[in-house]
Amino acid sequence: MIDLFKIFRHSVKKIVKAVSVEKAPENVIELKNVYKSFNDKKVIDGVDISVKKGEALAIIGPSGCGKSTLLRLIIGLFHPTSGEIIVKGVNIADLDKDQIVNIRKNIGMVFQSSALFDSLSVGENVAFGLREHKNYSEDKIKEIVAGKLEMVGLKGAENLMPSELSGGMQKRVSLARALATDPEIILYDEPTTGLDPITATSIEDLILDLHHKLNTSAVIVTHQLTTVYKIADRIVMLHNGKIIEAGTPDETIRSSDPTIKHFITGKAL
């Protein structure tokens, strides 16, 4: 005999599931038809990119293709020649310098060279953004700095100077500084460049762990394919300022485009 109650219950579950499906995550970053030229040299050529809340997007491509320029456009260090750069619903291409500084409060950046201030201690480096953008007491700042350094595995390192640190430790300090203001968006410019394979792997693992724990949105520019496949949800590949591939890591690996295949395998064209 057919169990009508079971059929009814199953149908109700399907309806409830369909109704309760979450809406697609909002885009925290959108680049729409963005162009950027320097002295008539076109570096970014009509790029469209979106990054969803909580997503990690990797930007790959050969040297000089415009990857780092894209990061500097997103953070407002460069102004687009044309197009829209929308961060948290605001087109920063329309903003003046002071307004862009306000937007940057919600963006952390880990620079390729770590970019620590040599004359400042580790603690002062991590506190730099807090002192610039937050009206916190010194005790509160010290508490935050200690927490962020512990988060990146450098508990108690506040009084060290950058010159006393290894390359991997400097990257960790740079990451702690980027996290200090609790940004929703973090930009990484070649986060493992110049590191030995073991240290690079530890930095990749740290970035991945913090990305999941903090639910940040991340844009990662890198040549390191292990970083891409370990961390990224999606990949965008640039070539001559244009996007020639956009998809998941698996889709990129299976791409039949010869430029992409040569880049991934490390073979010269």
Question: Nutshell version of this structure?
Answer:
This protein has 269 residues and is an alpha/beta fold. It has helices at residues 4-19, 67-74, 97-104, 122-133, 138-151, 167-179, 197-214, 225-231, 249-253, 258-265; strands spanning 27-38, 41-52, 56-60, 82-87, 90-91, 107-110, 185-189, 217-221, 234-239, 242-247. The strands form 2 sheets. The chain has a 6-stranded mixed sheet.
Secondary-structure map:
Blueprint: H1 4-19, E1 27-38, E2 41-52, E3 56-60, H2 67-74, E4 82-87, E5 90-91, H3 97-104, E6 107-110, H4 122-133, H5 138-151, H6 167-179, E7 185-189, H7 197-214, E8 217-221, H8 225-231, E9 234-239, E10 242-247, H9 249-253, H10 258-265
Parallel strand pairs: 3-8, 3-9, 6-7, 7-8
Antiparallel strand pairs: 1-2, 1-4, 4-5, 9-10
Helix pairs in contact: 4-5, 4-6, 5-6, 6-7, 7-8
Could you explain the architecture of this structure?
With 269 residues, the protein is α/β, with parallel strands linked by helices. Helices cover 41% and strands 23% of the residues. The chain is built from ten helices and ten strands. The chain has helices at residues 4-19, 67-74, 97-104, 122-133, 138-151, 167-179, 197-214, 225-231, 249-253, 258-265, and strands at 27-38, 41-52, 56-60, 82-87, 90-91, 107-110, 185-189, 217-221, 234-239, 242-247. The strands form two sheets. Strands 6-7-8-3-9-10 form a six-stranded mixed β-sheet. Strand 9 (234-239) and strand 10 (242-247) form a beta hairpin. Helix 5 (138-151) packs across helix 6 and helix 7 packs parallel to helix 8. The longest helix has 18 residues, at 197-214. The N and C termini lie far apart (68 Å). Residues 1-22 have low confidence and may be disordered.
